[in-house]
Amino acid sequence: VSVDYRRAPEHPLPIAYEDSWTSLKWVASHLNGNGSDEWINRYADFEKVFLAGDSAGANIAHNVCIRVGTEGLHGINVEGIVLVHSFFWGVERIGSETKQSEHLDFVDNLWRFVYPTSLGSDDPLLNPGFDSNLGKLSCKRVLVCVAENDLLKDRGWYYKELLEKIGWGGVVEVIETKGEGHVFHLFNPKCDNAVSLFNQIASFINHSG
């Protein structure tokens, strides 16, 4: 199911989060096989639901999974999430960010642009390290995909460290694509690295417990 959430600046955050949550609840409404979409009624396995996204979509997938853990959603078991080149950030520079001066302010300003009423770059929606509900991430497995030349790469590795540090009970895995930048697979989906990435994601989903 692809979520066509409303986008900033015409629809500033947190609208995209709410649209995505509403969409997941709509999927859950098919639990008894009498929902409005016949394909979901017939084929959906509600015991093995995966949430996935690229960039901002990865951020949303993470936050929706947190919301499942904090609010609950009857009939939906989120088996795992796939976070591809996640749009996470923070005030404190980490990893290779400390060696870069270009584009850092751009990310800060971009967040303020799409979410004018936000608390800033350490908003828990953007910086999981400031989310007191991180341990309630409602899935068993996480696949984090990063790209070597992506400014956001270190945020993916940091996410893994956070989950391990707080003792989250699931399994988190990171795969890094060498020589590529942010969402390269969307610009050139037939290149070898993109095909490899797609195969690894498919393997992660197909080998669920």
TrEMBL record:
- Could you tell me one molecular function GO term of this UniProt entry? hydrolase activity
| InterPro entries with a match to the protein in the record | AB_hydrolase_3 (IPR013094), AB_hydrolase_fold (IPR029058), Carboxylest/Gibb_receptor (IPR050466), Lipase_GDXG_put_SER_AS (IPR033140)
Extract the Pfam families matched here: Abhydrolase_3 (PF07859)
Per its UniProt record, what PROSITE patterns does this chain match?
LIPASE_GDXG_SER
**Organism superkingdom:** Eukaryota
Q: Which family does the entry's similarity section mention?
A: Belongs to the 'GDXG' lipolytic enzyme family.
This protein's name: Putative carboxylesterase 13-like protein
Annotated source species: Trifolium pratense
Q: What lineage does the source organism belong to?
A: Eukaryota, Viridiplantae, Streptophyta, Embryophyta, Tracheophyta
